[in-house]
Design goal:
The complex is a heterodimer of chains A (275) and B (277).
Chain A lengths: L5 H7 L4 E6 L12 E2 L4 E3 L13 E2 L17 E10 L5 E11 L10 E3 L19 E9 L7 E10 L6 E7 L8 E3 L9 E8 L8 E15 L8 E3 L1 H4 L3 E2 L5 E7 L8 E10 L1
Chain B lengths: L5 H5 L6 E7 L9 E3 L5 E2 L13 E2 L19 E11 L3 E11 L11 E2 L20 E8 L10 E7 L6 E5 L14 E4 L9 E8 L8 E15 L10 H4 L3 E2 L5 E7 L6 E11 L1
Antiparallel strand pairs in B: 1-3, 1-16, 2-11, 2-15, 4-6, 5-14, 5-16, 6-13, 6-15, 7-12, 8-11, 8-13, 9-10, 9-12
Classes of the chains: A mainly beta (275), B mainly beta (277).
């Protein structure tokens, strides 16, 4: 079954989920750097670092990510999304589905480290394991100690068309804070990652802990101007009735217009419709 | 079949696409636009075109162009929604359908250079090759070294009514070709009075040397734009805002950013959805 009418949409709307985050001083981030909210304190949030090994784990849930319940029958679609926050900063926020993550990357090894990721769950843009629209980021769970930005980190991957030997690049900021989320740039012509074969840091990160995370972007939101009145409310016409597949693992990544202050607050709601 | 009701729209949304570009402006002064076709990000960036002066038709198979699935069963495609974000300053974001582009323009030749463009794909406003609503721009794929802005560039074209000998200009009244134009610089031509589109291009005349670098002509149909009034302005556009522009088979979407100042624009993100009904 699928939702094809306004009546079906309305009949299928579920109760909204609510969440909030109050960031911690040791997790604050500079401007212009993506930052995962899963490690911060709040409801739910407060995740621990992944420990699934280099090949990683296909995720169906993860403590600290946002709540999601599979539909009893039919499909699930993102119906409504609200995002807001306090303080004087401006933010972009990405509402993501966390498909896979790993652990065990040696942060001082500068040569290729084998990943050979396990298969993604069937939650790419088309609900398959091909990886169309799937992006990958390097997420920091313990702050690194590299004194300068690392610009030669690469990832060897197979693209969503099944072509191997592709290379993605990423910039890792200096002394990346816990939660820093560095999104890889794909090789020319590619629109998704099907699997990861290896990562090459290129330059030592000194210390800390990092992980690879494969994700699909469900929605983009944010706070257009500083202050609590500037958050966004989006309905299905704004969101495009995004299909969310079984065992979606929602979480937020944000980017600030200026360095964060301690106790940056975010909150929001999200609603699904089933049918 | 077409979108004729809100119910049609509910059942017509495809999964959204995401276009992410890490560095979205070239540091040019305000009001100089930047093509994001060749900028790294997700999907992977496009490469400088190399089809020669007569150019080539662009399809979604080209690296740097967004994926697009042609509808089946008589359905039609529409741009149903979009949201844009970027860091760094006020700007406007544009989504265009890239119909055609060329290469091989000699940047130091001041006289007319023959283009004689191949036929556009049937993707003008009406879904034909006539060119109604098709605009043209000069795109920089290798930084130029002209010491001063240039206002002497002209293109001889045939308009969408089939009238030849028309002249499009970059003459400083609406746009100038900037001094030492950076990679990605995007300068639209102004069409001759009365014209609403370009059917074909016969020649280009730079008038003034660009010194060095690489430029190419691009024919495109504008699909939508949104003003981002401050860093991270993220006003969502729904179907009422996009106006549901029709997307024809093989629509080849890419983005152009128009910063208000020379402040660097980074982390451009566009999330958009197509409806097929």
């Amino acid at each position: 079954m699928t939702i094809a009418t306004i009546d079906q949409f309305l009949a299928g709307c579920q109760q909204p989920y609510a969440w909030y985050v109050n960031t911690q001083a040791d997790l604050n981030e500079g401007a212009a750097t993506w930052h995962s909210l899963i490690y911060h304190r709040g409801q739910p949030c407060g995740a621990v670092a992944p420990s699934s090994g280099m090949a990683g784990a296909a995720l169906t849930s993860y403590a600290g990510c946002l709540q999601y319940d599979n539909p009893v029958s039919g499909n699930s679609y993102l119906a409504r999304l609200t995002f807001n926050g306090g303080g004087t900063n401006t933010f972009v926020a990405l509402f993501l589905d966390r498909l896979w993550h790993n652990s065990g990357i040696a942060v001082t090894t500068t040569t290729a480290q084998t990943i050979n990721s396990v298969a993604w769950p069937a939650r790419d843009r088309n609900g398959s394991t091909d990886g169309e629209g799937v992006m990958v980021a390097l997420e920091v769970s313990t702050a690194t100690t590299n004194g300068a930005a690392v610009t030669n980190c690469t990832m060897s991957y197979t693209n969503s068309a099944g072509v191997s030997g592709r290379t993605a690049t990423v910039l890792i900021p200096a002394t990346a804070a816990k939660g820093t989320f560095c999104i890889f740039r794909l090789q020319s012509g590619d629109y998704g990652v099907q699997s990861i074969q290896s990562i090459t840091l290129g330059t030592s990160l000194g210390g800390g802990a990092v992980h690879l995370v494969a994700f699909r972007t469900l929605a983009v939101t944010g706070m257009a101007n500083a202050g609590q009145s500037a958050g966004l409310v989006q309905d299905f016409t704004d969101l495009g009735l995004v299909r969310c597949y079984d065992n979606t693992v929602p979480f937020y990544v944000v980017m600030a217009g200026a360095a964060w202050s301690t106790n940056q607050r975010f909150w929001g709601t999200y609603t699904f419709t089933h049918g | 079949m077409a979108l004729a009701s809100l119910n049609d729209l509910v059942g017509a949304f495809l999964a959204p696409y995401n276009l992410y570009r890490v560095t979205a402006s070239s540091g040019e002064s305000g009001n100089v636009s930047q093509s994001l076709f060749g900028v790294i990000g997700h999907p992977g960036n496009g490469a400088p075109p190399t089809p020669g002066m007569a150019g080539e038709v662009v399809t979604p198979a080209l690296a740097g162009i967004m994926p697009f699935t042609n509808p089946t069963g008589g359905k039609k495609s529409y741009l149903a929604r979009a949201i844009f974000t970027a860091l760094g300053g006020t700007s406007s974001a544009h989504l265009h359908d890239r119909l055609w582009h060329n290469s091989g323009i000699a940047v130091t030749t001041l006289t007319a250079q023959t283009v004689d463009s191949v036929t556009w794909p049937a993707r003008d406003e009406d879904g034909t090759t006539n060119g109604k609503g098709v605009m043209i721009a000069l795109e920089v794929n290798g930084a130029t070294s002209n010491g001063a802005a240039i206002n002497t560039i002209t293109v001889s074209y045939t308009n969408s009514d089939g009238v030849s000998g028309r002249t499009a200009v970059i003459d400083g009244l609406t746009h100038s070709f900037p001094a030492s134009a950076a990679f990605g610089t995007w300068v639209p031509f102004r069409l001759q009075t009365g014209d609403v589109g370009v059917r074909s291009i016969q020649s280009i005349t730079l008038g003034t040397s660009l010194g060095s670098g690489t430029v190419n002509l691009v024919a495109y149909r504008p699909l939508c734009f949104e003003v981002m009034n401050s860093a991270y302005a993220t006003r969502p556009m729904n179907f009422r805002d996009t106006g549901l522009p029709r997307l024809y088979d093989d629509t080849s979407i890419f983005a152009v950013l128009s910063p208000e100042s020379s402040a660097a624009i980074t982390h451009f993100w566009c999330n958009y959805s197509i409806a097929q009904a």
